[in-house]
Design goal:
The structure is a homodimer of 233-residue chains. The first copy, chain A, has 233 residues and is of the alpha+beta class. Chain A has six helices and eleven strands. The structure holds a DNA duplex (30 and 30 nucleotides).
Amino acid sequence: MSHLHNNTQLNTMNNMSTIDSNAFVIREREFLFKMGDQLEGIYRVNSGSVKIFKTTESGDDQIIRFCMPGDLIGLDGLADGMSRSTVVTLETSNLSLIPFKSILNRDQKFDYPDFIHQLGVNFNHDIEYSMMLSQCADRRIAWFLINYSDSLKKRGLRAEEFSVSMKRTDIALYLGMAVETLSRELATFCKRGLVKKYLRNIELLDIEAIRKIANGDTLLADTHSDSSESLAA
Amino acid sequence: MSHLHNNTQLNTMNNMSTIDSNAFVIREREFLFKMGDQLEGIYRVNSGSVKIFKTTESGDDQIIRFCMPGDLIGLDGLADGMSRSTVVTLETSNLSLIPFKSILNRDQKFDYPDFIHQLGVNFNHDIEYSMMLSQCADRRIAWFLINYSDSLKKRGLRAEEFSVSMKRTDIALYLGMAVETLSRELATFCKRGLVKKYLRNIELLDIEAIRKIANGDTLLADTHSDSSESLAA
DNA sequence: CGACTGGTTGATGACAGTCAACTGATGTGG
DNA sequence: CCACATCAGTTGACTGTCATCAACCAGTCG
């Protein structure tokens, strides 16, 4: 198969109107904060990627979310300032801190309407995620692939061919299934000619077919309007 | 079994600092809005209860959330003003409209810090919900019972004995399982002496045991600190 | 080159979904 | 007020999906 390039390592910072003085770099596999930590604010991913997970009483981890550039981290601290989840970088990343003070005092340079918009986007993602969790395995995987692809496209990157920054175990934990199931289903996708894969490089050969699987129907699913229009406009 | 009283019909409006001029009453089984509707704002439940659900392309409903007094509705419209879900009352309810204008313009009477706090609470609920969805059936049911009970206790109502406002089908859709599974598991709970049920009346005989099931361990789970302290304080 | 981590594949069993029948509760019209 | 229709809830039998356990292969790193 063709040599895939890793486009998740680009320091793409589109839609960053102002260079944030609160921006900083954090290395691969480092903790941003852990469950129970008191947070100073929420964070925004400028480049790189992180995983957010919780550890249950039983001791198993469950990945809540992968954050890509543009995503917010630490919203679970909005209620009382305490994080209920742990955040680890998947690769070297650039983040910005948005202090709670700025949010509550509505600092000049804090874009409040955009913040509200972002919160809404987050809600919609979480809801879609939880809906997806009660679907069968292949739909969940298809949903993940489409989501990942869309996220890249939104940032102007290649949507058909990419390299994921997380390992299979992480993806499986995120999708709520065993690694083996993920592996098997991916193999099936390959056999059906829907995707090609080599290690963490993935090529989507038939995006529309995958999208149909994600939507759970064989009919044309064109209800995927972007609706990125902002309420604040 | 003893005659259970229905405490979900009380017009309890605790923590309502101001009588909202935007409050209104909506009858049982009426739609507040549907998927795709343009919203005027978000809503707050003062009394009664509603269910929020989405209909997939395949045509099946999935219940996202039940809202009780104090809960916010329509957060999925924050991104662009369009609702991605449908809301139906489970009983006659009293709601307040919080217009987007009030939120974006920061009206005097709009309690911004409390709003941010509420958003955080919502996030935490959604995350807990999605984590729960990948647990086995009995844990999900136990989680639901504990959650319902806690919600009542928080409003000063009886936590051990209550009447749910939703039917089995709704609960099953919410928990992402078949009605039959719910029915069977509930029957098991009864046999084990954990709960008593008669129609929609439910009595929790051993809350701690149920909580342990929800947490998935047989050990004492005391990590349930309330943490209702507000960030805004 | 071994040792380790990450990823795949195979065999087996359990949990839970589906189909179906049935009971109990609620509501309606004659 | 009863007969009937309808809806909600329960229980049983069967099946399929997916988790688990296990072995194995591939890639990476010291």
